[in-house]
Amino acid sequence: MTTATSPILLKWDPKSLEIRTLTVERLLEPLVTQVTTLVNTSNKGPSSKKKGRSKKAHVLAVSVEQATQNFLEKGEQIAKDSHDLKEELIAAVEDVRKQGETMRVASSEFADDPCSSVKRGTMVRAARALLSAVTRLLILADMADVMRLLAHLKIVEEALEGVKNATNEQDLANRFKEFGKEMVKLNYVAARRQQELKDPQCRDEMAAARGALKKNATMLYTASQAFLRHPDVAATRANRDYVFKQVQEAIGAISSAAQAASPTDEKHGHAGIGELAAALNEFDTLWYMTLWYMSLWHMTLWHMTLWHMTLWYMTLWHMTLWHMTLWHMTLWHMTLWHMTLWYMTLWYMTLWYMTLWYMSLWHMTLWHMTLWYMTLWYMTLWYMTLWYMSLWHMTLWHMTLWYMTLWYMTLWYMTLWYMSLWHMTLWHMTLWYMTLWHMTLWHMTLWYMTLWHMTLWHMTLWHMTLWYMTLWHSACGQSHSTRSCSARLMFIPNHNWIPMVPESVTGSLSSQL
Length: 513
Prior knowledge:
Oligomer: single chain
Order of helices and strands: HHHHHHHHHHH
Shape: flat
Number of strands: 0
Helix content: over 70%
Strand content: under 5%
Mean pLDDT: 77
Distance between the termini: 181 Å
Number of helices: 11
């Protein structure tokens, strides 16, 4: 059993070529198949074909070389990432490279001469050496995985010792929390290793150990807590020690099963728990595989149905297109043939008639030719019009309908727009003209009233002036005395409102009288 202070020791012989995992078998299977096929080339006796270089052997040799190169690349990467078996992995990679080169030379010589038994024997020995080297490399890589699992086991054992050495309940809770985290990681790595083991008994032992570890880990915290609360009670100590022993034995069983070795203590096996855990794991695997296969089957069925429907529609479309193309080409060729035949017949008949008409009467020939050409032109025009109308009628009808619809909608919108514009323009112009007319009428009325008032005032003034002048002349004409008219006017009774006339005026008036 591995303890917390002991180093990581493998129960494996690195020189042994025993394959213990399914992964190594799956990786070796393609290479073994290719090498076996290459070795068995031309092993069925002489061929009836001409002897010479075998293309199949060359292809197989290239495939073996490519597979070897893939193993080398993966091995170098594993050796680079490994810490415990780095030197062994590097040596195994170099051995594979060496044996691969030997195999390449031997297979190339054998491919050039597949009937040679010596070259066949050399290639068989090289193939066995190559398979041994590749197997050793894969086993070392598998051992590296086991070393990582054992490192996890050692971490879990150290965490278990920490839980055992807890001094109080708070310290126990913290250390058990760390122990739980490491247990989750260990369970994941152990489950993956369990699926890769080749031996069913080792898988059962791994499942039993995982079940026992899971079962006792849940009781570990309770037993340790009871012991910390009652350290003087012997039963609590015995209970805690028993649970710790069960957990340590489960860890040891996982270590032994991971290395495909028999458990050290057959008395404390966990057959019942192992059978139940194995059955549960098998049930989970079967359920998930069934679900995956059903999903894959449904997806495949859906894709196949979609593919067949697509293929059917594509075939139908191509057949329809082909038939339509064939029909149109046949129609075009028949139309061309009939038109050619018709034109040639028409040309020969026209030539004959023209010769006859020229030999007959020129005027009658001219008249008949005119009539014939007119008839021929109208018939050709009618046939061509009929053909074009038959060929383009639907397209022209749809285009005409579309353009008329577009035209009518455009005309309707333009008419609506122009009507709206015209009504708005008419309304604004009417409003403007009415405003202008009212303004003009008001100004003219004002002007005419002003003119009338001024004219009336001027006429009144003129009439009053005329009246005063007439009155004044009449007053001056009635007097025959030498007195001046101004003097008389001055003494007219009840005429005090008449203004005084200056003497210069009266003197001038007197001299005139």
